[in-house]
Every structure is written in structure tokens, then in C-alpha cells.
Specification:
alpha+beta; 5-stranded antiparallel beta sheet; 5 strands; 18% strand
Length: 170
Amino acid sequence: MSNSPTNPFDPNTGQAAIPTVKKKTNVWLWVIGIIGGLGLVAAIVCCGGSYWAFNFGMGKVAETVKTDLMGNPVIGEHIGDIEDLSMNLTATGEEQQNGAKPNTMVLDAKGSKGSGKLIVTPGPGGGFDTIELELPDGTRHQAKPLEEFDLNFDMGGIDLGDAENPDGGF
């Protein structure tokens, strides 16, 4: 069987081969799309994590302030028992622009009798240096943390001994 010179399937016929069309691939578009998508996911995770960490930290600060102000007569008189504390970033910025210490925070307080703003300045030892209550009418009252009050407990007749003999004479 011989190959015919007109056979289109014979590679030796002397005719030029039909050029094959290369399909255009979009590899670079896929690479750029994947990198962009991963960057977007990383930005969302980073921003979401930062937001969560900030809210978690501010919640802990609010709980500490709430605990320190339990039984405070100034707070009890004006806003009652504190039910909710939340960070007020706008008022914090305004307070610091008005010359407050750099770490001063403003917390919105809602209580059983009313509401107000707590202007809190952290102290060097982890406690609070000053706490002020600002009422909606603009008046401010100094609200010291509980450990600064002079509490006189009635010990019900228990003799605690004297300072010279702390073990009570035993």
C-alpha cells in the first residue's frame, strides 16, 4: 500500500503542516486573583481580630471600673447601681483634647436611677488614679474607687487586739 500524494493524513506529502492554534491561558489572571483574594481574607481577619481584641479589652476595663465603684456613695446617689458601661471614643478624644492625662478614658454609664459619663484616669499601679462622674446636665462629681474610702465596720464586739500586740495577746 502506497501513500498517495493527495493523502491529507500523510506527513510526508510535501505540504506545509496546518498550524495549530494555541489556546490562550489566563494563568496570570488566576495568580493575581488568588493573591488578591488571600490578601482580602487576611485584611478581614486582621481587622476583625483587632476589633474583637479591642472590645474584649474595653469590656475588661469596664468590668474593673464597675467592680471598683460598687457601693460608691457618689455613684449610688446619682445613677444608682451600674447596669451597663461602654467605651465612648468620641468623648475620650474630646476629654484628651481639653487637657486630660494621656490615658484618660470616658465610659458611658447607665444605672438604675439615671445615666452619666465616667471619666477614668488609670494610676501607675494598675488601679485608677481618679474617677469623675459627669451627669447629663454637665456637673461633675469626684467618685473615688472603693479602697480610698474610710470604711468603719462594726465588728459586732470582736476584739481585734491592738497594734502593739497583733495576735490579740495570745
